[in-house]
Amino acid sequence: MEKALFGAGCFWGVEDFFRQVPGVSDAVSGYAGGTTQSPTYREVCNDETYHAEVVEVTFDPTKVSYRTLVELFFRIHNPTQKNRQGPDFGTQYRSVIFTHSGEEQARIAAEEKAKVEASGKWKQPVVTQIEPAPTFWKAEESHQRYFQKHGGSCHVSFAELQAESASSSEAIGH
To answer: What is the mean pLDDT for each group of 10 consecutive residues in the chain (174 residues)?
Structure first.
């Protein structure tokens, strides 16, 4: 099993999305990239720590590639919005990929970011940060599997992306 660490706005929807991806065995909401240890949700939301809301994705690389996960990451949020996603704003909502596994994840993330930039899909520049993975701090239990516990959603589902890809003949997963 390998790990990926993504920040794409509110972690509830990001976690829920990645839980639907075949080959992902776990997705955990948490915080990374800030200036304090053991941050709380209140501290992060008050912009006191510079932590991003992130999701730690555990995946089987024989079933889903890291590249596929990065491609999906770029499709489920707007990577041109600095320190916000939709109505949520603050540094905790920044678009960021924290990389593990030496240089391989960083190389793949940079290649996929360059593809998104070159695609012409976005009129604004892509602001996604790519940084080595810092300590991951698991969020409070009330934030884990939030939509399973409370209902709702805020991101497109994996099934919707598959259907969109099928209609436009894009492949998800290589």
So the answer is: 96 93 98 96 93 97 98 95 87 96 93 97 96 97 87 74 69 48
Question: Cα(14)–Cα(103) distance, rounded to whole angstroms?
Answer: 24
| 10 classed as catalytic | yes
Is 144:28 a contact under the CB 8 Å cutoff?
Answer: yes
Helices within 33-157 (DSSP H only)? 41-45, 66-75, 103-119, 146-150
5, 8, 10, 54: the catalytic one is 10
Q: Catalogue all structural domains in the chain, each as residue range(s) with its CATH number.
A: 2-168 (3.30.1060.10)
Whole-structure pTM value: 0.91
